[in-house]
Structure formats: C-alpha cells, structure tokens
Give the backbone structure.
Amino acid sequence: MRLSDKTKEVLLGPLSQNNPVIVQVLGICSALAVTVQLEPAIVMGLAVTIIVAMSNVVISLLRNTIPMRIRIIVQLVVVAALVTVVSEVLKAFAYDVSVQLSVYIGLIITNCILMGRLEAFAMSNKPWDSLLDGLGNGVGYALILIIVAFFRELFGSGTLFGMRVIPECFYDWGYANNGLMIMPPMALILVGCIIWAHRAKNKDLQEK
Amino acid sequence: MSQEKKKLNTDSNAYTIVYAAVMVVIVALLLALTSSALKKRQDDNIALDKKKQILRALNVNLDGQDAAALYEQYVTAAQLVKIDGTVVSEDRDVAFGVDVAKENAKPETERQLPIYFATIDGQQKYVLPLRGAGLWGPIWGYVALNDDKQTIFGVDFSHESETPGLGGEITKEFFTTRFKGKTLYASGENAVEVVKSNANDQQVDAISGATFTSNGVRDMFNSSLKQYVIFLGGISEGSTVEANDTADSTEGAIDSEATQVMPCCNAATAEIAEEASND
C-alpha cells in the first residue's frame, strides 16, 4: 500500500519532528521511571504503543457523539477500561507477562501521551489516521526510552539486557559504574542531552 | 463521519447526562463480564504461580517443565500451624489454599500459617512463606531451609508494585542466590542481614537504588519468621533462646511504609523522588 503524504506525516512525524517526548514533552514521568534497564523500557514502550493506538481508534469512532463538556472524562474512562481489560486478559492467558508488567499497567493510565493524543488528534480525525497516529507516537516514545535506557544501563550497571558488556578487567583497572546513572535525575539529564542534539540538527524546532 | 449524528445537539444537558450514564453502564458491564469470564483461568494461573514460587525457592529448575507435576513430586506434605506451634491441619491442599496475606491481617494468636515439607535429593527441606512491605506495596516470597532449620537452602521473592529496574530486581536470580547458605539469625539481630556494602559471608548485599525495598526484604524475614519460632527452635535446642530474643526485638514497624496511591503523573514523579532519596 502506498502512503499518502498526510499518512506518512501522521505515522512518521512522531518519530522525530513531532516526537512525543522530546518535542511535545509528554510522558516524561514514566520515561524517567522505567529507563534504568533496557528490558523494562522496551516492554513499557510496547505497552504504551498498543494502548495509545487502541484508545485513539475508540475515541476517534466516538468523536462525533462525545459531549464536549465531559470529553476528558469519556477519554479517561475509555483508557482506563481498555487498560483494565487488557490486564485481565493477560492475567488469564499470559500470566508471566502480566507479572512482568505489574506496575506498568498502572503507569500507562497516568501517561500523559495518551490524553495528549486523544485530545489533540483522535477527537478530530478519522479512525485509520488515529490508529497510525497512536502507533507513531507510541514508537516515538519507545525510541526515546530505549536510547535513554541504553546509556543508563551501559554506564550505570555495565550491562545490556542484563548481560555484562563491560569486561571484568576494566573494573580491575579502576573503572567504576556511574552510580548517578541509576538515579532518576540522570534520565532527565539524558533526555535534555537528546533534546539538545535533536534541536541542533533540526533548526526549525528551535524557539526564537 | 455520519451526517445525521452531527445534527444531534451534543452539548445539551440531557444528552450529556444520558451519554455519561450509558457509557458507565456499558463499561461496567464490559468489565464485569471480562472479570467473571476470566476468573477461573486467573485463579488457576495464580495457584500455578504459587507452586512455581515454592519450587524456585527449592532451587528446582522449571525451564520447560510442568510445574504442577514437579510440585506433586517434590513437595511431599504440608501443615497449617499456629504461632504457639499447634498443628491445625495436616492436609496438603488445605495448607496450600491459605492466603498468607489474610492470615497476617489477623491477630497473631489466630493466624494459621503453612509449612511445606519437601524432599530434594533425599534431603528434607522446609519451605516457609514470607510476607512484608516494600516501598510501594506488598512483597512476598518463600524461604527453603535445610533440615537443620537454620541454613537457607534457597529463596524466591515476588512483589506487587516495586519500581522496575530498582526494587523490582528482588525477584531476579542474581539477588536471590545471594541468600543461599546463609544462617538465620547469624548476627543475632536480624534473621538475615541485608547490607549496603562490604557484605561478609553471612550478610546479603542489597540492591543499589532500592534501599527501601532491600530493607523491606530484611524486615519481611524478621516479621515472617518470628511466627515460626516454635517450629524453627524445635529441633536445634541451642537456637531456641536466640530465636525468642529476636522475636521480641523485631520491630513492628513493617506497616509504616504505607502504600500510597497518587493520581496521574504525580505517582511516577513521587516514585522517582522517593527512589532517588533512598541512597
């Protein structure tokens, strides 16, 4: 299938030019909480992508019927209901996954990207575009999480995916893991560095 | 999308109220249906997971194995005991079905807690349940003891909502193996010492960045094992006095880290602040 320009922008824009974390600055809280290691960061990115895409579609289908004054409540109910159903289904059919996800499920509901995309996009666009927008933003979010988690796990614990990549002999020569990397403030600093590099490359994003 | 729907006045009070009411009913129905349709499967999964936890505490390799069958094979018996040592039930299934969390909510003298008896390579092992508080919610697990009732054969931990990558790491093997071979009440103060650095051969190295959860694990051993004082002291006479002393001095402050539920992004932010201030 060939993608039209608009579809392309909706799907691929959030990866860089309109990235939810580093341009829209949404979902920062969870980006700090789950990026100590790569694995949880990927799981979280995946979970958010699926839920954003699904709730975007539901809200987009309902968009013409939703009363304006209670739209935020309707969005919240849809998100909460979807997350609950998904978590119940996981508990029944993929128990190990649900144990691994444990706290993420709750964190997904609090993720600002969800409300942000529902309000900014799904309320005024067709279901297919909303699905793409949800996927794009979810992947854009996951991308930043993975970059941050990569550096935090590598320099904080000397591992990637829990496997040692910095050889033991480095430690014998006096190399030490950077304890600050494990702390959440370092995630903020890393996100700041990513924003810096990103804006240096994309001059049109720089504020005047 | 649909032309006729746009004619509807979606801003009128009546429409808003009806919309909200219908939405709530539909969502409630949906959630109730999902929950009741999946309840049986979920309960089975939870029981199976419990068996897996007990087997992991016994260092049984579960890869690609049928956990339920292994459980039948290794865990030969179980008892329900009270804190004064009276055996309430000898039925393995009754003991297995006990909800330790609910028992812990009762007054100490009314609690009925399970002891699992297992045979690994011809050796008698005892498995005791643990339950305590982490930073954000309950943590629990199982400790398997050798037949001297003093040496830890293996442990397994689970948690409900500890921070992934920090407190959530207590479930990982790198942490649980640190408990193997440790002697209970070696220092006389805590059942197991979980320390920040320079652990000696009887102490367990804590997880950096997760001090609250690591302390929670230590307190969980104290508060859970003191309920088995009679059982633990029964065989090796020398340890009876020691164990009793420790039971008295164990702090009852396990519930002080109340689980907080905070709305929206604050939960995540506060979590970060908490975890950051831990070290």
User: Anything to note?
Assistant: Residues 22-149 of chain A form one domain. The beta strands of chain A are 159-160, 163-164.
